[in-house]
PH domain-containing protein
Amino acid sequence: MLPNPEDPPAGWPKARRSALRVLAAAGFAVLTVITAAVAVSAVAAGDVAGAITFGMGAIVLAHLTGMSVNIMQRPRPADHPPVTDVNDHGETGLAFRYAFWPYYWLSVVFAFFTLGAAAFAIVVAMQATWAAGVLAALALAAAALVGWYLVVLLRLAPGRVVLTRSGLYHRSLFLEHFVPWDAVVDVVARAAPSPWITVKALPMDQTRERRHTGRMGGFEGQALPFMVVRTQWLGADALPAYQAIKYYFAHPEQRTHLTDHDLRTNSDA
């Protein structure tokens, strides 16, 4: 295979606006308007329960619309200097933190789904039938699962990529992963419907990983021992993060500058 003359690919990390994604965003938007209209009608009719139910539904659908649009947007160029942060062992390095808006959209959807499933379980259980009991149990299980994901998501937030003298550390939504520089064999900018950075790495004793949700660790956990960073979550820092990882991978002699003193000195300068 011939090397890619463009590194990263032209337009990267812009997400591809497939017809399915555009239709999904438009569909969520239409459903939001319809559900909001039904909620307003329920208020006018004095139906408090209906107003609350459809009002919450409209909020969830509005956030699904926002999340769908956010996924398709190209991140704005970074307008802030690099920052420092620590990895899971307290080692300071150059850091690229996850953006706020993807967290906001997903967290609100998770929260309302959890509340809605729990409320549905309570209402259904009051019917005191065998079928209602099964539905209530399924709803409670769904609420517990998504609620657990939400707690882990917020506990690990904000995610980040930290470059230190010893290696690369990535804290994603549900996974913590550290790869020593000696294990890295390549760094690739993947152009896809949802672009990502792939750090190809060999399994080594110094590699560390912690799956906070077990085998249900999401996209990043499926690529191990490779490190995968989705650009949607890095936002404006996606391109600078890729360039920094690529640079320090190609120039090992420069990694000695990834110390707290050197990074702070460069930042002050």
About this structure: The longest strand covers residues 184-190. The chain has three domains: 1-69, 83-98+158-268, 99-156. Residues 99-156 form one domain. Strands lie at 83-86, 92-97, 160-163, 167-171, 175-180, 184-190, 196-201, 208-211, 227-230.
